[in-house]
Design goal:
Blueprint (H helix, E strand, L loop, with lengths): L2 E2 L2 E2 L25 H11 L3 H9 L2 E3 L11 E8 L12 H6 L11 E9 L6 E5 L5 E3 L5 E3 L3 H16 L4 H24 L5 E5 L1 H10 L3 E5 L3 E3 L4 E3 L2 E5 L1 H9 L8 H21 L6 H14 E4 L4 H7 L8 E5 L5 E4 L2 E4 L3 H24 L18 E6 L6 H11 L3 E7 L7 E4 L4 H10 L5 E3 L7 E6 L26 E2 L8
Parallel strand pairs: 3-14, 4-9, 6-15, 18-19, 18-22, 20-21
Antiparallel strand pairs: 1-2, 4-5, 5-6, 7-8, 9-14, 10-13, 11-12, 15-23, 16-17, 20-22
């Protein structure tokens, strides 16, 4: 059972899904910050020596049998509310206090569950968020919240091994956790209809250390907020967070306008910001930061033992261009039953949603590949622009275009000339006289490569730009926003290529 390309292989005898509900990314989700670690490893695995150093120190587990050598890859990303490190050693009390981890209930919660799909050949990836309270069938256990799969099966396996006798404590812990992880993998496969090829897990300390290693992550809040339980205390507006503050930011639920929904949106946006910071800000070319990231991965990450990170790095290269969209599976509301409040899900609807999202992402990648690349940016000026005035006449149907162009020329250092309307014309041109041809050519280049022509009507030291209906306004820079107010709530999908202000 595996997804290859855009088609999902289903189990025999499973009836076709009913029509899916309307898609919405605002549905209840739990977004993980473990994705960033996978992206780090993918990008860091470009050299064998570094690949060897990274994998040598990471704890591995045998929970999947996927083959990453070809085809699409589905990676299960799990964030656990664990008070131990990857080797089972308790975290110091001082660290737990700093992280505002709260009391230890003795239960290992898998609070974040994401299925990351990277298509065959790379392209546009999709991260499917699965609400932790989704009420599903857990193979080998019972029907329960999906986040019960890991801790419940871990505890049951440990009890069984203790009863058998002859197993050292360390072996019991390792085998029990392996069984718990395997149960979660199978539950996700049953729910989504796709096979899990690889597994990655991170704990609270790992996330806090990750944000410190990249030098903090930029966020933006519409209003100031505070919460004693999570340790959150943030002002309104843009700010950079790392360490315990970053962890408080994504864990806060109380005091937010929409409670869990606001927290979910924070996790989505923050994860996108982390991925964007790692992949686009030179983090992976900074030896000190890269070394810190590798250290965090070795101390706090667990991956499956069969993962070829070098192969995955090559396949996931498109993620670095922002080709990663965050979505959540469809749900059917909540219900209170014997195990508490659960999120109802229909596996058939989820199967169809996953198929359609993967197909949509593949179509986006294909369209992007066909798109005409933007024109090359003009080169620097090699003249002294303050020696020339630029006059502009608007012969297009776009109102105010002459003023926009003359302002652009002024920003480049030219003297501001006159502006006026011109008789309707199809072709744009830059006119000059005498020895001003070189300056006219440079103005023409800055405006998208317009033709130039000598004209007796143009005086020396003045360049005349005539704008026709063929003028491409995309060559002009986008004007800066005129207000510092927070933007409205996000309406577009959250990707790794920029994030909005949130609650």
């Amino acid at each position: 059972m595996s997804t290859r390309g855009t088609a999902t292989v289903r189990r025999p005898g499973v009836p076709p899904p009913p029509p899916p509900p309307k898609r919405t990314w605002r549905r209840r989700i739990r977004i993980a910050l473990v994705v960033a670690h996978v992206l780090v490893l993918a990008a860091a695995g470009t050299a064998w020596s570094l690949y060897r150093d990274v994998t040598a120190g990471i704890v591995t587990t045998d929970v999947v049998s996927g083959d990453s050598s070809d085809g699409a890859q589905n990676v299960l990303l799990v964030g656990v509310d664990s008070r131990t490190d990857t080797k089972g050693n308790p975290l110091p009390d001082e660290v737990l206090r700093r992280l505002h981890a709260g009391p230890d209930t003795g239960v290992l919660n898998s609070d974040t569950i994401i299925l990351l799909h990277v298509p065959d050949g790379g392209g546009a990836a999709a991260a499917f968020s699965i609400p932790r309270d989704s009420y599903v069938d857990i193979p080998g256990y019972r029907t329960d919240k999906i986040n019960a799969a890991y801790p419940a099966v871990t505890a049951l396996t440990a009890e069984k091994l203790v009863a058998e006798g002859g197993h050292p404590r360390q072996e019991i812990d390792a085998l029990a956790r392996q069984a718990g992880r395997t149960a979660l993998v199978k539950a996700v496969e049953e729910l989504t209809g796709v096979s899990v090829d690889h597994y990655a897990e991170i704990n609270l300390l790992g996330f806090a250390n990750l944000t410190q290693a990249v030098g903090g992550v930029d966020v933006c809040l519409r209003a100031a907020t505070s919460d004693e339980l999570s340790g959150a205390d943030f002002r309104a507006g843009p700010q950079t967070l790392s360490g315990a503050d970053a962890l408080s930011f994504v864990r806060q639920r109380h005091g937010l306008p929409q409670g869990d929904l606001s927290r979910i949106r924070r996790q989505q946006v923050f994860l996108a910001a982390v991925a964007h910071k790692i992949l686009s800000a030179g983090t992976l070319t900074d030896p000190a930061k890269l070394s810190a990231l590798v250290g965090v991965a070795q101390d706090t990450l667990v991956i499956d033992s069969g993962w070829d990170l070098l192969g995955f790095a090559q396949q996931a290269a498109g993620i670095a261009r922002g080709n990663l969209e965050f979505v959540t599976i469809p749900t059917l509301g909540t219900q209170t039953i014997d195990v508490g409040s659960v999120v109802k899900v229909d596996p058939f609807q989820v199967h169809d949603f996953v198929d359609r999202t993967i197909a949509d992402q593949a179509a986006k990648a294909e369209e992007a590949a066909k798109a005409t690349p933007p024109p090359a940016a003009p080169g620097p000026l090699t003249i002294i622009p303050s020696r020339y005035a630029v006059d502009v006449r608007n012969g297009s149907s776009v109102k105010g275009l002459a003023v926009t162009v003359v302002d652009r020329m002024r920003d480049l250092g030219f003297l501001r000339g006159s502006t006026d309307n011109f008789e309707p014309t199809e072709e744009s041109v830059v006119r000059y006289t005498g020895a001003d041809r070189g300056a006219a050519l440079q103005v023409a280049e800055q405006l998208g490569g317009l033709p130039v022509e000598a004209s007796d009507e143009t005086v020396a030291g003045h360049l005349l730009v005539i704008l026709g209906s063929d003028f491409d306004r995309s060559v002009l820079p986008t004007p800066a926003p005129r207000t510092t107010a927070a933007p409205p709530p996000p309406t577009a999908p959250i990707t790794a290529d920029g994030v909005p202000c949130i609650d």
